[in-house]
Amino acid sequence: PRRMSLFLSLMTCAAVFHTVITLRTMSDVMKPLERGTVSTETAAVVPDRVSQLGEYRLTATTGSRRSDLFPDVRLTDQYGKTLRFRSDIVRDNIVCVVLFYTECQGTCPGTTQMMKRLRASLKDDFAAESLKFVSISLDPENDTPEDLLAYAADNGISAKDDMPEWIFCTGTLEDIESIRLSLGLFDPDPVVDADRTQHAALLTFGNDQYDRWTALPAGLKFSDLSETFRRIVGTTERQRFETRITSSAVLVNAQQSSSNDSCCTKMLQNGIKPCCTKPTE
Q1: What does each C-alpha distance from 46 to 14, 231, 239, 260 come to in angstroms?
Q2: Per residue in 70-103, is it b (16+ CB within 10 Å) or e — as a string?
Q3: Residues 167, 89: contact at Cβ < 8 Å?
Q4: Contacts of 5 by beta carbon, 8 Å cutoff, 6+ apart
Q5: How confident is the model at residue 258 (pLDDT cuts 50, 70, 90)?
Q6: 54 secondary structure, DSSP code
Q7: What is the residue-averaged pLDDT of the chain?
Q8: What are phi and psi of 238, to 5 degrees?
Q9: pLDDT given at position 160
Q10: pTM: predicted TM-score of the whole model, two decimal places
């Protein structure tokens, strides 16, 4: 037992050391970008870091999960099929859940369009994953499956568009309220909470198999929303960090080009022929 305990302690230390080194490497690349200053050495590291990203998967959760607290209530999708929220929609899947209703003229249209962009951007990187987008009606008494199907069609969403599955759901008001409360999507002021027109435009997303969850406002910049989604639900280093590093490389090139143009402009203004002019010039 003592040898086993020592072995496990050494393995834990090694894992922590590897994680710290990885995070420090990422930090060394990202800090100059956040400050807006990028050196030539850092610029060279960015593309190299992409090639170093691993394909090994995170360790799946074997114990209790946050989704254990989700109600396993029955919902009806846009095709009239009955699904259970926890066991059929969430369990072992990657999901992006939003609350909406078809007659909403506030944040719902923009949220749906943001989800469309997110869905399109993830379809290749998560092709092998069980990725589902889920829109649950806050007005189940009026939103029938036929209404949900028409809403999806009006927004260019189809089961035949070679994209991750998108489920539009209705059900009983009581069951949907239980889902809403379990996701923490409520206002502490009961008057505001009872007014569906005041509902929060939040995307709740997670990877149930790995028990990783978060929620973000749908009004964030798309790049920030997409990068965070990948970091939370991705199961490999490449899924979680490639987009972040690649977008940083674009920023590096833009900053270098801007700096070079600024240098040349100042030299020309002083009557000096710059050596930093572009080959095409």
Answers
A1: 26, 18, 16, 19
A2: bbbbebbbbeeeebebbebbbbebbbbbbbbbbe
A3: yes
A4: none
A5: low
A6: -
A7: 78
A8: -65, -45
A9: 80
A10: 0.70
- Tell me the per-residue pLDDT of 121-172, one tens digit each, with 9 for 90 and over: 998 888 767 899 999 999 999 999 999 999 999 999 998 878 999 999 999 9
Closest to 120 (Cα-Cα) out of 259, 229, 217, 281: 229
- List, in sequence order, the alpha helices (H) in the chain: 2-35, 40-52, 108-122, 145-154, 173-182, 190-193, 222-233, 237-269
- The residues facing 97 across adjacent strands are 134, 204
Amino acid at 197: T
Question: Where is average pLDDT lowest: 53-67, 185-199, 215-229?
Answer: 53-67
What's the rounded Cα separation, in Å, for the pair 135 and 201?
12
Place of tokens 């369009």: 113
Q: How many residues does the chain have?
A: 281
